[in-house]
Specification:
With 472 residues, the protein is α/β, with parallel strands linked by helices. It folds into two domains: 181 residues, Flavin prenyltransferase-like (Rossmann fold, 3-Layer(aba) Sandwich), CATH 3.40.50; 199 residues, Rossmann fold (3-Layer(aba) Sandwich), CATH 3.40.50. The protein is built from 16 helices and 21 strands. The strands form six sheets. An eight-stranded mixed beta sheet has the order 12-11-8-13-16-17-19-20, with helices on both faces. Strands 2-1-3-4-5 form a five-stranded parallel beta sheet, sandwiched between helices. Strand 16, helix 15 and strand 17 form a beta-alpha-beta unit. It starts with 10 loop residues before the first helix and ends with a helix. About 4% of the residues have low confidence. The structure holds flavin mononucleotide (FMN). The site of flavin mononucleotide (FMN) has 15 residues, from helix 7. Flavin mononucleotide (FMN) binds next to helix 7.
Length: 472
Amino acid sequence: MASLTIRKLDEAIKAELRLRAARHGRSVEDEVRVILRQAAEGPAAPAPSSHPTPAAHRSRPTSTTTNSVTLIIGGGIAAYKALDLIRRLKERHMDVRCVLTRAAQQFVTPLAASALSHERCYTDLFDAGSEFDAGHIRLARDCDLIVVAPATADLMAKTAQGHADDLASAILLATNKPILLAPAMNPLMWNNPATRRNVAQLIRDGIVTIGPNAGEMAEAGEAGVGRMAEPTEIAIAAERILRPPQAQPLAGQRVLITAGPTHEPIDPVRYIANRSSGKQGFAIAAAAQAAGADVTLVSGPVDLDDPVGVNVKHVESAREMLAQVEAALPTDIAIFAAAVADWRVASEGTQKLKKTGAGIPPLQLTENPDILATISKLRDNRPPLVIGFAAETEHLIDNAKAKFARKGCDWIVANDVSPATGVMGGDRNTVHLLTREADGTVNVESWPVMTKDEVATTLIERIASHVKDTST
Ligand SMILES: Cc1cc2nc3c(=O)[nH]c(=O)nc-3n(C[C@H](O)[C@H](O)[C@H](O)COP(=O)(O)O)c2cc1C
């Protein structure tokens, strides 16, 4: 990937960039990143005039705002976990620039940190390549947050005393950004009066700490308080500092979501599946959880981490999915985003089907339970708001309208999953929301191309305003 040197741009452009950056409260580098990202994403597809554009599209959801983090990795055993932390920060829309202390490089390499952060990694205060314009000051200030993980006893002592004799300590002294420390050390080091004094001083100075946790140490047979907080915990703490919790419009609401494909067994080793990745359903679960809902996610087989704070039930087949859905009722809202197989093999082989000379065995199919229709038509326990997904490869709106009429749900989210769209397995989605007017006519809103996270946030915002309207 090519890099861009802002210093080499025309003076007039630089002046314009500085003004824009100041107006938006961003660093010049971040301003350039925003401009490039917007240019790459292109203009949002205009919504057909008969379909109103949701208000949420005019301003991008805050949960997808990109922040930038300078991650200082100290020289402790837990440095290897800092590599995972880079991932956890990036998946929360944070750009990460890494600084490794000299000791940290004994545990992890700058190359690994660069490869994971997709950015150059910094190690040296006296680096001619980055210090020609006081690079340590840029690393200290051209970010929204500094995270130190692992924060060693030594680095905390230096920070508490205001030392600046290497890149990490100089950045920590020169910054005007919030600092989050994740200490990690042997329990005796942590409990040493000197460390206690230093930590108390750092907290008085306004620095935020997370952990350490109790547990086993790397040293054989030792346990106690000193383990670095887990990468996900640190990333959540970073997110809380950068994006303080918003109002939680779905607090107190129970939300049930299905996601992913189902696997329908043919015999003990073979199954019928589809290409659903589960990304859209998982994004909706995370967005509902962030909006304060109590979320149960019933997922088919996917290659995704469980969203933090969500109660996840893993299933394989449509029948198992229905059983878990029914077990999760009653809920206030149910969103069926899973790509449930319509059919399964009528009589599943108890042993692996063998090639015999008798020709190809016929696969007799039988219909799977229709989860969306079953729940939509419940007499008791029907969630007050049932939302289905319609994945179509042709005649999208017509087919979605027909499904809407058949299933008895309240809203349908229709999306085109033909291979050319790259929706199945991809990160973007183009959806149409079908709702019913009071007189029974179907209203279709066509949303512009968005990331699956943005679709999720926008859908949850719509649900929140529906809940508010119907409860007043
Ligand atoms: C194998 C090994 C493991 C270490 N683990 C830790 C640790 O977990 N926490 C810590 O504070 N120091 C640990 N140290 C000591 C630090 O590496 C040492 O204090 C170093 O000066 C820290 O430098 P830094 O703070 O600039 O990264 C360890 C040292 C060694 C040799």
